[in-house]
Amino acid sequence: MAPLKPTWTQPSHPNVQEVQIKLGDYATRSVSKVDLRPFEVLADLNFPPCTKASVATYATVQMGQHEHLSLNSDLVYINHSCEPSLIFDTGNMKVIAGPKGLKKGDELTFFYPSTEYTMAQCFECICSTLSCRGFISGAEKVKAVNPSKLSDSTALWLNKHIAELLDIPGEYPPWEALAQAKALWALAHVDAVGSRAISGEMGGDTNGNAK
Ligand SMILES: [Zn+2]
To answer: Secondary structure of the chain: what % helix, strand, coil (to 5)?
Structure first.
């Protein structure tokens, strides 16, 4: 996201997020300080510091058809990617790892159209991933250009309010497809799964896994 003057105490999520401030638009990035399995919680979207907002800005996340969330924390420094490492699950008010899990040092990213129907500030994506959608302008316009780019075989996360606004049939969030991705991850990480506490989620940014 664009540089902005923080009104909160920094760092806001020191156990899980390292913000790398760089000059210039969209140059600031965040990296993970923790390893997470698929869908484990990186941070909760609590009130406070979050507040509800009636209009979208570059520092909000859309949480319903007509509701937005001012993050009021370093979570605003999580960039967009077309192959994101994170999911902003606004139905459960949590930021969770994507279906591939998360490793220390990974850039923290999420797919902005998964929460945003229209965007206050559109931009040309430079994520350079194979599935890059190019111009990112909110789910409404991404769908208008190419609907398949919103719901493809990568089991991309869309929040329920976006699927409803776009009239996309089927279950959203797409838990079934995501569960398959998680199962594939588990097969590829048998050793890692065995060596970790696997009951439930880690409980957000207060987990003992961070340095
Ligand atoms: Zn991209």
So the answer is: 20, 20, 60
When pLDDT is cut at 50, 70 and 90, the band that residue 183 belongs to is: confident
The 3-state DSSP class for residue 165 equals helix
Cα 135 to ligand 1 centroid, rounded to whole Å: 8
Question: 194 alpha carbon to ligand 1 midpoint, in Å?
Answer: 34
- Cα–ligand 1 centroid distance for 179 (angstroms): 24
* Helix boundaries (H) for 108-207: 139-145, 160-166, 175-188, 190-194
Range of the domain at 54: 17-193
Q: Give the confidence band of 3 by pLDDT, cuts at 50, 70, 90.
A: low
Which backbone phi and psi does 30 adopt, to 5 degrees? -125, 140
Q: What is the CATH number of the domain that holds 104?
A: 2.170.270.10
